[in-house]
Amino acid sequence: MLRVLAFIRRLPGVSRDAFRSHYEEIHVPTALPVLAGICGYVRYHLREEIHGTPDFDCMTRFEYPDAAAARDTFVRTEGPEGEAIRRDERTFMDKPAIVFFPVEEAASWQAATPRARPAHLLLCVRRPPGEAPAGFRRRFQEDQLPALRAAALDAVWCRPQWALPDLAEAASFDAVTELGAAGVGDLPRWARSLEAEGARVIAVRVSVHETPMQS
User: Fold this and answer.
1) Pair (116, 197) in one structural domain
2) What is the SS3 string spanning the chain?
3) Taking the complete model, does pTM exceed 0.85, yes or no?
4) Residue segments in the chain with a per-residue pLDDT below the cut of 70
5) Cα separation of 9 and 100, whole Å?
6) What per-residue confidence (pLDDT) applies to 167?
7) What is the structure's pLDDT at 185?
8) C-alpha angle 193/151/44, rounded to 5°?
9) What is the pLDDT, as a whole number, of residue 165?
10) With the C-alpha atoms ordered 25, 27, 33, 38, is the resulting torsion angle positive or negative?
11) How far is Cα 149 from Cα 129, in angstroms, rounded to an integer?
């Protein structure tokens, strides 16, 4: 499976609520006929800024069975079949600001006694300048993920994702972690400790909108 994340910004003058409504009520139905063949389509809309200044209003996750399916989808969306999609995007998205990059999922963590309906948090980290992607990934996995779970209030689950090392220079973030927790807790302190090392950290609360796709 190939997973690609898209970080999408709204146009100036479009509120976050209007952006989210348009995306879910108009854009998704417009795009679905052209997205046949993908196996995952999930939107993470920003609801609360916890730390940092995000330069995106939605993170969209696309999942494809393989690279060939991804190429086929790209050809359709950029060809005549995708004209309606592209026309609609220009009405509410800042298209030049959209960043796409592939990621791979790491081992997830689950609490032994999960709570019902935790907040869905998104932690996006760009490594410090000069640090190698592989070294950052190893250090983040060994040191920062446990610290992240400890900092949040009653963490329930944690799902890290890594930008592919050979494509990391073109990625906005090296680590994109989804976290379920009862609350923010000391996450701002955790973020500041990473920033003191030169990393860039964005922490937000999101709402998750998933469209079931036919296999």
Assistant:
1) yes
2) CEEEEEEECECCCCCHHHHHHHHHHHHHHHHHHHCCCCCEEEEEEEEEEEECCCCCCEEEEEEECCHHHHHHHHHHHHCHHHHHHHHHHHHHECHHHCEEEEEEECCCEECCCCCCCCEEEEEEEECCCCCCHHHHHHHHHHHHHHHHHHHCEEEEEEEEEEECHHHHHHCCCCEEEEEEEEECCCHHHHHHHHHCCCCEEEEEEEEEEECCCCC
3) yes
4) 114-116, 215
5) 12
6) 76
7) 96
8) 95
9) 80
10) negative
11) 25
**Identity of the amino acid at 20:** R
Rounded Cα–Cα distance for residues 120 and 37 (Å): 28
How many domains is the chain built from? 2
Domain hosting 112: range is: 104-207
CATH of the domain at 42: 3.30.70.100
